[in-house]
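A quick word before the example. In earlier lectures we treated sequence and structure as two separate objects. From today on, think of them as two lines of the same record. Here is Magnesium transporter written that way.
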Amino acid sequence: MGSHPSETDIEQHPGNRIGSAPPRTRAWRDGKLEAEGFPVAEVSDYLERPDVVVWLDLCSPRHDDLRVVSEELGLDHVAVEDAVSRHERAKLDQYRGYIFLNMYEPEIRDGDLVLHELSAFVAERALVTVRQEGGFDIDALVRRWDGSPLSDGLEGAGAQAGYLLYELLDLVVDRQLDAVQALDGEADDVEELVFDDAFPVKEIQERSFRLRKNLVALRRVALPMREVVNTLLRRDLRIVPPALMPYFQDVYDHTLRVGEWTDGLRDLVANLLDTRLALQGNRMNEVMKKVTSWAAIIAVPTAVTGFYGQNVPYPGSQQHWGFIISAIVIVVCSVGLYVIFKRRDWL
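And the structure line, produced from the sequence above:
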């Protein structure tokens, strides 16, 4: 057996070598866990029982690897192609007898946004998750299922399969909320740097650019989730059982919050960049005022000494009292200019 009870034993069932990790399987009956870790080929056997819900998880499968799963569940080749393709748009496609979902779980790692892609096939009594790599925290999803028994207030296998989907969507949207909250904290740090007296321009530029890049990436995967959940809530499609409507409505509210939060942060970052340019311009004006003021002060002794350096006779020429008067003029004018500039806050 694998390291998890739900992982199938590759040595006993060589045909289960699908993807980069052993597949994980579970079956619930009347809301209670009945079996786990069974071979993929037995999925259809469990689905023949009308009161059983099945979950199958695959990690990094190839197109050929999904052939067995496609035969077991009757999946369309277009949906299978989307499941194994990377960087698909977050979306929901409806096929006969099942729906296909593609979504992203974000993670802030060392200041950068990392996206973990996940696809899912959702039938009336089956859920198949396809992870593009091992970054998606599938154990957290299993813990959610185990912490909320499927039999609590839900009647029928269809409602229980819908609850599996609800917990999956709720986990993804919650992680998006965590990511946007982390980016909000980063925006606060950049704001403090902008108004810091040290004004580290290079650090502000680097962090603001990275923050804006992360926000754009998060918005690109979070915004379509509103459309996905809104489609699930459409009563005419009858995808979600009525008993689960409040659950999915809560997820939809969270998707709206993520979208509004990211839009607000984008505006905040743009305002911070404008503020940085304005403050930088003001600081440059202050520096220019100081340089100009000191230049004016230095111009006084330069003018006096230059005037008295003329090669013509002038009052006090070659006299001790003439030197004293010129020194007094230099000191008085320089001090006077310094006082005037200081009062005007130019120095």
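Notice the following. Strands lie at 24-29, 32-36, 52-59, 91-95, 98-109, 112-123, 126-131. We will return to this example when we discuss secondary structure assignment.
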